[in-house]
Amino acid sequence: MQPHHFSCLYNFKAYLVYHFLASVQPVTKEVVDDKSKDLTTSGDSIRRRFLEFYASRGHKILPSASLVPDDPTVLLTIAGMLQFKPVFLGKVPRQVARATTAQRCIRTNDVENVGRTARHHTFFEMLGNFSFGDYFKKEAIRWAWELTTIEFGLPADRLWVSVYEDDDEAFAIWHHQVGVPVERIQRMGEDDNFWSSGPTGPCGPCSEIYYDFHPERGCTDTDLGDDTRFIEFYNLVFMQYNKKDDGSLEPLKQKNIDTGLGLERMARILQKVPNNYETDLIYPIIEKASKLANVSYFLANDQTKTQLKIIGDHLRAIVYLISDGVVPSNIGRGYVVRRLIRRAVRTGRLLGIKGDGRGNPEGAFLPEIAEKVIELSSQIHSDVKSRESRIIEELKREELRFVQTLERGEKLLEQMLADVVLKARENRILPCLAGRDAFLLYDTYGFPVEITMEVAEERGVKIDMNGFEVEMEHQKRQSQAAHNTVKLSVENDEEITDIISDTEFLGYETLAARAVVEGLLVNGKSVLQVSEGSDVEVLLNRTPFYAESGGQIGDNGLICTESGKKQKSVVEIKDVQKSPGNIFVHKGTIKEGVIEVGTEVNAAVDAKLRQRAKVHHTATHLLQAALKKVIGKETSQAGSLVAFDRLRFDFNFHRPLMEKELMEIEGLINGWIGDATLLQTKVMPLTEAKEAGAIAMFGEKYGEQVRVVEVPGVSMELCGGTHVSSTSEIRGFRIITEQGIASGIRRIEAVAGDAFIEYVNARDNHMRHLCSTLKVKAEEVTTRVETLLDELRVVRNEVSAAHAKAAVYKASMIASNAFPVGSSKKIRVLVECMDDTDADSLKSAAEYLIAALQDPAAVILGSSPGEGKVSLLAAFTPGVVDLGLQAGKFIGPIAKLCGGGGGGRPNFAQAGGRKPENLSNALAKAREDLVSIISEKTR
């Protein structure tokens, strides 16, 4: 149905009513006027009712995991089940039999569909209920139906169900026990209704529930994939098989349930709007963007609506990613958020948003919209509000930086088009911009290909869209591989977790303990004994060794046996890691004897190295506290390393720290060390720890009970690491370096304790040697070095001037070698080798020659200033540049002949190379090309 034409003086509310009546299903005027008045259908209410429904059926409500997963196989959290992956694999024992969550998720593999369909998003919430070896199909199906039809009140005659084609059990439950008519149950193939984690591993059939927007179309030849009629909103995965290498299926010992209900999709259905974007979860963000663009969403054309939807979607993803610690960069997760920010910025420009949208052309508009996202976040993730200032600052900085990039892209496009037109004229062909160039503009500079096409069309240039699509497809495959697979696998070999119990950690109380060898691994394979000289991984029932986690490296030490008549064995441990679950893997080399499974051993940690780690770990906590005091509370940890010889701390900050800030940080930390404050360690519920103000360590995953390490009055953090008893044990702290490692990420490396003493002693020894060499006192070293540098600078300038003078003299001797080229216009051309003249002197020679030869003239000079070095230079007068020759473009290909490259301005350019043996041939090529081009252009 097409909307009627209204006069300009229509009633806007009447228009809204008509708009929705023309959509997929009728709604009341009251719902249109203010959907939020019906609190039972609000997005927040749907989330709450889902969780409460399953909580009343014995499910534990668990918090959403971070968008940064504790899983190396995926970049971002893409599914509700991801945080339970170790449980599904049987590598970690279940903490609860049933769970329910509202999980924040990110998927960017089909970002091009965002805004163009009614349901695609980059950020979405997946409501899920999970069973870990408890209930199975019957209960999952029955409860899903009760939730849908009773709790949410969806009409049963509008619901369709799909099942896997061979899953007769699910079909029977849906039809005979739930009562869904046969004609509204569809059997579907493996592509649609069989979930698999990968080539091998846990898998099983799934069943999906669809809502029918147009039941009047009947049940004949129905396609559940028809987006204009159906939306799939609830997926039930019955994880009951393990897929083996040969493709065969074997039943899992523990059958699991993994479900996902799309919150945005259910909100669309209950709020009776034509797409997910017009729900109360997203539309307020779109409304904010509409105001900045000075457009009305409901009066806008389809293209404008799509652009507003893109901004509404992307800002949600961006805000939650930054809140969870992802900083824009050119790699990994940082690249995902940077791409989304850039897409939102260029979309805003297409909408006509200038600057901040409020009259400041130098401002940024994304922070304005982000404020609305943060306002809506209270029921999704309460921590977002507390991180608001950091989110806003990061967005502002990234947007303004990208606007500059976008402007550079515009200049690059102009240059590309000019080159294409020039080349087309020379070769007498139609001008066409390469697809890879269009993709470079799209991917690196944020240029939509549509804009590139429009600008190119104005210049009479076509675009190789096939080449562009090839580049896009290549990137899409990489994106899908990186972002849209949750990798689960069950090893064919014997599972260590099936035969080895969790390791009891004793390392907080003692550095030595008796233990029993429960397992030995060599090259990942389980063995019964290992002999001298072999590398081995030792699994103990209890251990004092700390396993690497929370940034702290694993302990070093010895595992020894000496019992009765048996030969003594000694294993030197150089690393300790934690396997899935809580099994400590002691990695080392057998220095003496033979070690066997079942043997009682003495495990002893290297006390000196442990003390170094403790000192650096506590110093890391003090460093974070000092950073928050000096540069702001919003700075947060982005990674850390606690080693025996140093500590490393990465944190979010947008600029280098000033010297006075570094000195203030050091002063604070050394002051706290001097206070000799006793540390306090407690174990408490996670919620209680957060309420007390404890800071979580970056990238760590916490259970319901957490360990809190507090330096009273200074720092309180959730931490499982080892720490000193008193800050006085740290003895001293010194920052070694502070540097940027990525956009918005700084890194401090520092030393404390014994490492601090060693560092200071080494510096002192260097100073003593310097004083002896310079024959001055320590306090006079700086003055003496500055004097020497000044003297060296003067000498260097004198030498450089002498070289330049010599080069000019050589130039005067070869100026007469210039020869005329061209018929209608005589161009003086000089191409010469100047032996070992350095690059700066070569420049002086070229300047002399251009002045001596006068306009129009072209000079190409080459030299070999050292072994394996080539210097090249091109200088063109204005008369030559006016012919269309550019020095930078001319010298580049010549430099490639010498194994190098370079470029510069149209009138002057320098290049280098690594193959002096090719210099004479390169200059000959330069002479030939220059004569040819000038002759052609002066006919």
Describe this structure in words.
The protein is an alpha+beta fold. Strands 1, 2, 3, 4, 5, 6, 7, 8 and 9 form a 9-stranded mixed sheet that branches. The protein contains 27 helices and 35 strands.
Write the layout of secondary structure elements.
Elements: H1 12-21, H2 29-33, H3 43-55, E1 60-61, H4 85-88, E2 98-106, E3 123-132, H5 137-151, E4 159-164, H6 168-178, E5 185-188, H7 190-193, E6 194-196, E7 201-212, E8 230-243, E9 249-262, H8 263-271, H9 283-293, H10 302-323, H11 332-350, H12 366-375, H13 383-386, H14 388-427, E10 432-433, H15 435-444, H16 449-458, E11 462-463, H17 465-483, H18 496-499, E12 504-505, E13 512-522, E14 525-527, E15 529-531, E16 535-540, E17 542-543, E18 557-561, E19 569-578, E20 584-592, E21 594-596, E22 600-605, H19 607-631, E23 637-642, E24 647-652, H20 659-674, E25 680-685, H21 686-691, E26 705-711, E27 715-718, E28 733-742, E29 745-752, H22 754-774, H23 781-814, E30 819-821, E31 827-833, H24 839-853, E32 857-863, E33 870-876, H25 878-881, H26 887-896, E34 901-904, E35 908-913, H27 919-937
Q: Average pLDDT across residues?
A: 87
Could you give the count of β-strands? 35
Major sheet details: 9 strands, mixed
Contiguous helical run count: 27
Radius of gyration: 35 Å
Helix content percent band: 25-40%
Q: Beta fraction of the residues?
A: 15-25%
Task: Give the helix/strand class.
Answer: alpha+beta
Mass-distribution shape: globular
Residue windows where pLDDT falls under 50 for at least 5 positions: 1-37, 479-494
Q: Cα distance, first to last residue?
A: 66 Å
